[in-house]
Structure formats: C-alpha cells, structure tokens
Design brief:
By secondary structure, this protein is of the alpha/beta class. The protein has 13 helices and twelve strands. The protein has a six-stranded parallel beta sheet.
C-alpha cells in the first residue's frame, strides 16, 4: 500500500469514526504489547470523542499486562445482545487470528483493520496498513494527530508500551527518528521509561527463570550455526507454569547467537496436535516468507505461524523452509523489521 492509498484509507477511517456511535475494538489471540496498547489507546480516543466503546479479545487481557490503564473493561467476548456500527481490528494481518471474536465481528456492518504487518491480507472493509510503521501504536498516534487530540498520560502509556515492545526497546531496525520524536512526546506526559521497563521486562517469577534455564540448556543449531532454535514441549510449560512474558521472549535467545541468521522457537500446544512457531532474523533473511509457507506471516525479520502435527514433524518442515530461505538471503542488505 503506497502513501496515497494509505492517505485515502486514513480518510475513510476518520469518516467512519465521525459518522458512527458504537464501536467494537479487538486484536489477536494472546495479545502482546503492541496489540493491547494499540487497542486501548484507540478506545481512549473514541471515548474522548463521546463514542460508545466495547473492547473484546479472546482470553481477555493477559496477566502480564494488568498494569495497563483501561478506559473500558477488556472482555473475553461481548455480552449477549451486543451491537456495534463499526468493528476495529488492530495489529492483525490475518482475520483468523481474532479467534472466537470472529463470529461477532462478522455481524457488524463495517470492519476496519489498522495494522503494520507486511503480510496483511486486506480482509476488512477499510484497511489502513503501513508496513513501514514501527508498531500499530504508531498508526494510532497518527490518528490522534488527525483529530487534533494530544495523548494524556493513560493514553501515552498505552502508546509507549506499543512502541517500546515492537521496537525491542528501540533496538530493532524499525526504530526511526519519527519513533523517537513520538516517544519523547509520550514521556513528556509523565510516562516513566524506568517503570515501564520494570513492568515489562523485570517482573518474572522465580519459576520463569528456572524454566528459562532448562530450555536454554537444550538450544539447538545447524552444523554451520546459521539456523538456531529452541523447542518447548507443553509438559515443561505445565511443570514450570511459565508466564507468557518469558515464553514470548524465548526467540530472542537463539537470535542472539553471533552466527545466527534464522532463529525460531517451536512451542507445543496443550493438545499436542499443533506447534506454534516464532521466527526472527537479523535482517538478511525474510522470515515472513517462511511463515507464509505455513499460513502465517508478520514482518520480514519477525513472523509466526502454527503448524499441525508433532514437534518433530514441525521441526523437520521448518528446518527445510529455513534452509531454502537462507539460499535467498539478501547478502547483507537488511530487510525492514
């Protein structure tokens, strides 16, 4: 989507907000910082404009993000008899990722997707998608600007978490001058980088670190150490009761290996019939294309998918796809995150 198309879609988003009263906001299953931060910041904006807002996500709000200020409760599903004029879906490239909320969304007249994934499938009536944005929260910030609304502290906190998590604490290639300018404005409202860092990255339970130690002892790699991965059997998640925050961070450890070009984590689901895969690269291998092979997607340097079958079967399939991707690597030309 080029800049002219994005401008047209933004204009349509603004028109839909102005001409409607009741809104549903949702994101993907197991939402992370960008998904929740974007959804909540959008809810705050709509509430400030006098709109009726319902926020629903399959599973509600994860324990790790209970510190978020919420303008409305985050429901696991809308209440019976719920009606809305417009449904916003944020940070979701593929409609199926909304999970059980999908049936409710399909009954709503207008569906709007706000997203920054390069793999976005354009499934909504209005698709405002900018893969160059560091986070979906950056797009929500632009929406505030479009309405001439300055984020207050609670809204700024949500936007800050959105951006800080999707830029890897400003370490990834999507950290631009624009990102720092936005974050400077958010911090000026009173958002504390120290407190946010502690809430996001220093809130592990002892059992989480014991789980991490067990998992890291089993790190695996290809003979040339260019492909590095971890495997997480469900029994370990159950035995250690590992929190989602430590599990979501796992993929960063194989990526941190000096020689690694493709890193991934295979995580067994509770029914042991599927494997969730998180991919990362250092910018010279397009892991979005690997994920798309299995019906997933995301960004060129960070993607994910779900594969049917056992851990061993998933490992074999992913390794084959990763080896093929390495042959197509960009030879030092970094991909956008």
């Amino acid at each position: 989507m080029n800049s002219n198309q994005q401008a047209r879609e933004l204009k349509r988003v603004i028109g839909a907000i102005r001409s409607n009263r009741r809104f549903l906001i949702s994101s993907h299953i197991n939402p992370e910082g960008d998904a929740l931060g974007s959804a909540l910041a959008l809810a705050f904006l709509l509430k400030r404009m006098g709109k009726q807002v319902t926020l629903a996500n399959e599973g509600g709000i994860p324990e790790a993000f209970r510190f978020f200020p919420c303008p409305v409760p985050v429901l696991s599903r809308p209440k019976a008899g719920f009606k809305a004029d417009v449904s916003f879906i944020v940070d979701v490239p593929v409609f199926s990722r909304v999970g059980s909320i999908a049936a409710m969304i399909q009954k709503i007249p207008t569906v709007i997707c706000i997203d920054h994934h390069v793999s976005n499938q354009g499934f909504a009536d209005i698709n405002w998608v900018d893969p160059k944005a560091a986070a979906t929260g950056e797009l929500i910030y632009r929406l505030y600007q479009a309405f001439g609304v300055k984020p207050k502290f609670p809204e700024a906190l949500c936007l800050y978490v959105s951006i800080v998590t999707d830029t890897g604490s400003f370490r990834y290639m999507n950290t631009t001058p624009a990102v720092h300018r936005i974050v400077a404005e958010l911090i000026a409202t009173g958002v504390s980088p120290l407190k946010m860092s502690q809430a996001l990255f220093e809130s592990y339970a002892p059992s989480d670190l014991k789980f991490l130690g067990t998992i890291l002892r089993s790190i695996r790699h290809s003979p040339d150490e260019k492909i590095v991965w971890l495997e997480v059997p469900y029994r370990l998640l159950k035995d250690f009761r590992a929190g989602t925050e430590i599990v979501d961070e796992l993929v960063n450890y194989p990526r941190s290996i000096r020689t690694a070009l493709v890193a991934f984590v295979l995580r067994e689901t509770p029914d042991r019939k599927k494997v969730r895969v998180s991919f990362r690269s250092k910018g010279t291998v397009d892991v979005d294309q690997i994920a798309r092979t299995f019906g997933g997607g995301g960004h060129m340097a960070a993607s994910g998918c779900t594969i049917e079958g056992s851990l061993a079967r998933a490992r074999a399939r992913v390794l084959k796809a990763a080896r093929q991707a390495l042959k197509k690597r960009r030879d030092g030309r970094p991909a956008s995150y």
